[in-house]
Amino acid sequence: MALRMGGSVKHRNRHGGTPLLVAAVVAILGVLGMLIVDHGPWNKPNVQPAASANYSTTGEAARAAGAKVIPTEPKAPIEPDPPGPKPAHPANPGTPQ
């Protein structure tokens, strides 16, 4: 009695190409949709030359919008020591391991 390994291509009954085909179609439509949305004619940048800018600094633009622009408080030159015990140092820092 001989065992047949695999059989011929005609006798194989594989189904399952449909989910792969559906996934490929969804992926292609998704990529095309992103390309159309991102690079369509309605999505062109409106670049203005520097001469047409209304304000030359961010502060001027903020003041024109009604914001109150104040400088930040300077940091203390010397920071105080943090509360709590100081970290312990090893007893023999020079010993090789």
Description:
This protein has 97 residues and is mostly helical. 31% of the residues lie in helices and 0% in strands. It contains 2 helices and no strands. It has helices at 17-39, 58-64. The longest helix has 23 residues, at 17-39. It starts with 16 loop residues before the first helix and ends in a 33-residue tail after the last helix. The relative contact order is 0.04. The model has no long low-confidence stretch (mean pLDDT 77). Residues 41-97 are annotated as: Disordered. Residues 77-97 have a biased composition (Pro residues). Residues 45-59 have a biased composition (Polar residues). Keywords: Membrane, Transmembrane, Transmembrane helix. The chain crosses the membrane at residues 20-37.
Mean pLDDT, rounded to whole units?
A: 77
* Alpha-beta content class: mainly alpha
| Elements, N to C (H/E) | HH
The unreliable regions are: none
Alpha carbon gyration radius:
35 Å
- Taking the alpha carbons of the first and last residues, their distance comes to 70 Å
Number of helices, counting only DSSP H or I runs of 4 residues or more: 2
Largest sheet: none
Proportion of residues in extended strands: under 5%
Keywords:
97 residues; mainly alpha; 2 helices; 31% helix; flat; membrane; transmembrane helix; transmembrane
Please describe the topology of this protein.
Blueprint lengths: L16 H23 L18 H7 L33
Please sum up the structure shown:
Helix content is 31%, strand content 0%. The chain contains two helices and no strands. The protein has helices at 17-39, 58-64.
